[in-house]
Specification:
The radius of gyration is 16 Å and the shape is elongated. The longest helix is centred in the middle third of the chain and has 19 residues. With about 55 residues, the chain is mainly alpha-helical. It has two helices and no strands.
Length: about 55
C-alpha cells in the first residue's frame, strides 16, 4: 500500500537520486542483508522473522 506522500513529486530528492544514486534504497538492502546474516550467525530458529533493533534473538 502506498502512502499519500508517495504520489507527490519530490524534485529535490529525484535530483539527488540521479546524482548520487538511491542511497536510502541501498541502505535498506544492506540492512536486510545484515539482519539475515545476524540471524544466521546467531542461530535464530526462525530465519524468516523480522529482526528489529533492541530485539533479543
Amino acid at each position: 500500500m502506498r502512502s499519500p506522500t508517495e504520489n507527490v513529486p519530490h524534485p529535490i530528492y529525484d535530483d539527488l537520486v540521479r546524482e548520487f544514486g538511491d542511497v536510502v534504497a541501498e541502505a535498506q538492502v544492506a540492512a536486510e542483508f545484515m539482519q539475515h546474516q545476524a540471524a544466521r550467525l546467531l542461530g535464530a530458529p526462525d530465519e524468516g522473522r523480522q529482526v528489529r533493533p533492541g530485539m533479543l534473538p
